[in-house]
Amino acid sequence: MSATPDRPASTALRRVADRIGTGQATTIGMVLHGLGPAGVPLAVVLLALPSVLPVPFLPTGPVTGLLLMMIGVEFGLGARRLRLPGALLRIGLPRAVLAAVFRRALPRVEQIERWLRPGRLRWLTGAAARPLLGLSIVLLGFSLILPVPFGNPPPGIALILLGLGLLARDGAAVLVGLCLGLLALAWVVAISAGALYALHLAVVALGWW
User: Fold this and answer.
1) CA–CA separation, 95 and 92 (whole Å)
2) Do residues 20 and 102 touch, judged by C-beta distance below 8 A?
3) Residue 169 and residue 124: Cα distance in Å, rounded?
4) Which pTM does this prediction carry?
5) What are the pLDDT tens digits along the chain (209 aa)?
6) How far apart are CA 48 and CA 68, in angstroms?
7) Where are the membrane-spanning stretches (predicted)?
């Protein structure tokens, strides 16, 4: 299927995939640089993909979570261009593994794009909503850093919907992403609390407390 102008996410992702295929994108910075006008929303989608489509040898969790938190702060403050630490941007990425991520991600992104409708709930994609959306990206990014079993996919899905909704200017998709984000954060908190309680019970049972 060819990329079309009404599918900005898959169009931009195909462009980045082509750069990877020719060896022009081999670090996080080079990949993000290839996003073009898609900018911040597609960076959110791109960084959230490994949490939903886990692939070995990619820097997920702490690295992508930290980058998402920084992007969320910048987006919430109104920045239109990414300004991220060079040390993170210089992290190398295996070309073959990246290509596998894009092969698996593109069909799913195209499926979601079929349901997007620009102009719905327009206020959720405008400047007034940026602080709320930036905070949401920060919190969801932080949740990806936590070593919580099965804790990454729910925030990742919410981030992908937020990014695609912003890119298509579909406020309804953004709203769904926000609602899923709340559920994802509740899920992560519940699992974390359960793990801490189980650890407490184990410590008590062993007589260390």
Assistant:
1) 9
2) yes
3) 8
4) 0.83
5) 333 446 667 787 887 777 776 766 677 777 777 666 567 888 898 888 888 876 655 556 788 898 899 999 988 988 766 777 777 777 777 777 777 777 788 888 888 888 888 889 989 998 899 999 999 999 999 999 888 777 788 999 999 999 999 988 999 999 999 999 999 999 988 888 887 878 778 877 776 65
6) 8
7) 28-49, 56-75, 127-150, 156-178, 185-208
